[in-house]
Amino acid sequence: MIEPKVKIATCSLAGCFGCHMSLLDLDERLFDLAERVELDRSPLTDIKELGNCDLGLIEGGVCNAENVHVLMEFRTRCKILVAIGACALNGGVPAMRNQYDLKECLEESYLRGIGLVDPQIPNDPEIPLLLNQVHPLHEVVKIDYFLPGCPPSADAIWTFVNQLLSGQPLALPYTQIHYD
Amino acid sequence: MSEDRSFTLDGRPIPFQDGQTIMVAALAAGVYIPHLCFNPEFAPHGSCRVCLVKVNGRVQAACTTPAAVDQTVQNETGELREIRRGILQMLFVEGNHVCPACEKSGACQLQAVAYYVGMLAPHYTHFYPRRPVDASHPEAVLDFNRCILCELCVRASRDVDGKNIFAVQGRGIQAHLVVNTPSGKLGATDFSLADKAAQVCPTGAILTKHRGYEIPIGQRLYDRKPISVVGDVATLAESKGGRRHD
Fold first, then answer.
1. Which of A176, B34, B58, B114 gives A156 a disulfide partner, CB atoms 3.0 to 4.6 angstroms apart?
2. Percent of chain B as helix, strand, coil, to the nearest 5
3. Is the CB of residue B203 less than 8 Å from the CB of residue B106?
4. Do B66 and B107 share a domain, yes or no?
5. Residues B145 and B24 in one domain
6. What ipTM does this complex have?
């Protein structure tokens, strides 16, 4: 009997897609992974609608209203939700804007930036509204597991996913735990 | 009266001399007890609480508790590991520790101890305090975002350098590092990179200007081996990736 594949969804919120790049760094191990899992919504599949999944992997923190919406949908649809990478865990580099008021950030970028023509702060209704501060995922929804790194190495992702899928206790070797 | 006196640490006898703390005796016996505000060159401070051990069933700081015969001390237990992890998590959310954007990353004692106690994520709600960086000094940067109030720079500047440049002001959550000048700027002091105070910071709060990211990722102080094997950044020579002047 063929075992049903584990359904995985991934997304990048206020991140740089570096964690997804690290996932792709699994290289030939991706073939092995593809035998066991099926990708649902993910930048790698371009599926837009999130289905019911066993596992959700999220990189990036929460910086705007759309991030909140997507994160809550992932929490509803995924049995296990994993925060991957520094931004998802503590806000990371995007959270460095928390040192300033949102107004100051927008003015610095869009009104006082170098070489701007017709400077104005974007306000198209299609652009998600920015939150006052960037937040890590666990401040918005319950997160089941955390995988640190900027990004976590492919080896760390491999160890983590294998231990999780096989039901082993999670234990990363020393060299695979780092915050940068 | 100093012969053959010992206490038990995780079932192992640790010899000690009169006046030694549990931490100092353990260190001399080659046993690592995680710590941040402790540095063997300075009087113990007992503020970070990371070195908490169980002494005859009671939780105490190893760096300030005098060693005594008949002590049964527990160090590496799941319970203490969890307490230490909680302390580390609180230290991380209280400041702004953006490891990917810090030159000290990989050779940072705060980070290394957090790795050692198995901290994967900060768990608590972040404070994101607003603390401006002091870049007024020509040779050094003072990044208050990374300060954990260990007071090692305070002790070094006062007790070794004789300059008394740093101090901690305020109480409780209001406590913060200050520079002892009317302007509060490091540039207005006679602080020098040769100072002991420049060599003891366990985080990236005091940094040398005009250099950074010199050692590639994978070869930095704590990249391959844990702090229990490598030792503290402040006690290791610069040539070995530490902060201590050669």
1. A176
2. 25, 15, 60
3. no
4. no
5. no
6. 0.94
Residue B228 lies in a domain: yes
CA distance A157 to chain B (A): 14
Look at the block and give the residue holding tokens 């953006």.
B98
Which of B99, B146, B228 is the best mutation test for A, with the most CBs of A within 10 A?
A: B99
- The structural domain count of chain B equals 2
Considering the domain boundaries, does residue B86 fall inside one? no
Chain A, nearest residue to B118 by Cα: A177
Chain B contacts of A180, Cβ < 8 Å? Answer: 99-100, 102, 105-106, 217
Which residue, B76, B95, B127, sits at the end of a domain?
B76
The closest of A27, A8, A10 to A155, measured between CA atoms, is: A27
CB-CB neighbors (< 8 A) of A98 in chain B: 96, 128, 130
Domain that holds residue B35: 6-76
Do residues B164 and B207 both lie within one domain? yes
What is A6-98+131-176's CATH superfamily?
A: NADH:ubiquinone oxidoreductase-like, 20kDa subunit (3.40.50.700)
The whole model's pTM is what?
A: 0.96
Look at B96 and A179 and tell me if their CB atoms are within 8 Å: no
Would you say A169 and A101 are in contact if contact means Cβ atoms under 8 Å apart? Answer: no
Please check whether residues B172 and B57 belong to one and the same domain.
no
Chain A hits for B97, Cβ within 8 Å: 90
Q: Report the pLDDT value the prediction gives residue B118, as an integer from 0 to 100.
A: 96
Per-residue pLDDT of chain B (246 residues), as tens digits, is 546 799 999 999 999 999 999 999 999 999 999 999 999 999 999 999 999 999 999 999 999 999 999 999 999 999 999 999 999 999 999 999 999 999 999 999 999 999 999 999 999 999 999 999 999 999 999 999 999 999 999 999 999 999 999 999 999 989 999 999 999 999 999 999 999 999 999 999 999 999 889 999 999 999 999 999 999 999 999 999 999 998
The shortest CB-CB distance from A83 to any of B98, B99, B121 is to B121
Q: Round to whole Å and give the CA distance between B189 and B187.
A: 6
